[in-house]
Amino acid sequence: xxxxxxxxxxxxxxxxxxxxxxxxxxxxxxxxxxxxxxxxxxxxxxxxxxxxxxxxxxxxxxxxxxxxxxxxxxxxxxxxxxxxxxxxxxxxxxxxxxxxxxxxxxxxxxxxxxxxxxxxxxxxxxxxxxxxxxxxxxxxxxxxxxxxxxxxxxxxxxxxxxxxxxxxxxxxxxxxxxxxxxxxxxxxxxxxxxxxxxxxxxxxxxxxxxxxxxxxxxxxxxxxxxxxxxxxxxxxxxxxxxxxxxxxxxxxxxxx
Length: 256
Hints:
two-stranded antiparallel ribbon, 10 helices, alpha/beta, globular, Rossmann fold, 13% strand
């Protein structure tokens, strides 16, 4: 199903994507891992490019993004994104040295088709920033918003499925999340739980769009109450000073 603004996956970014550019800034520590995986590639395809987070600042980057709302938030110093989807890339075989997709593969309508297309147009590595579905619900937020993390876990594909789709052995690297992570996905707030009381912060994590407003409000009220009473800190307060969190975030690099 295609959403009104062109969003090709299961989330309507015309509705939820308005705050992404503000809340989903690239985190330098994560960006460094992505750049290292891309190696010395000069021509790079960014699939599901969104507002441009983690996009290498080189002149030979081609961005592809189906959502009009997300394309409109790309800063002026980045190239305009092409309107298109992973499942049908408008490029010739082996057009790029490398390709990348960050926080997007779980939203594709046909994962295998999208991965096959990325492999088809890429000479070198295909780099994916994704989450391990087996670990998503281990995060403390599951105590407060189980419907959100349950929906999230069901969306992410397994590593075995990714390997099959890439038709290659894939290097799987755990990505540590820094305490002051600039990229506002759910686990980025592991030591700053108050951020998830902000409506725009939640709206910038697509999994929150899969629960009703009433359910979301109940989750937020429960978290707010535990923060006010000190219950959250009694259980998880050590995370406020933990420099890195090892959660469900991984980098998957498939080489030809």
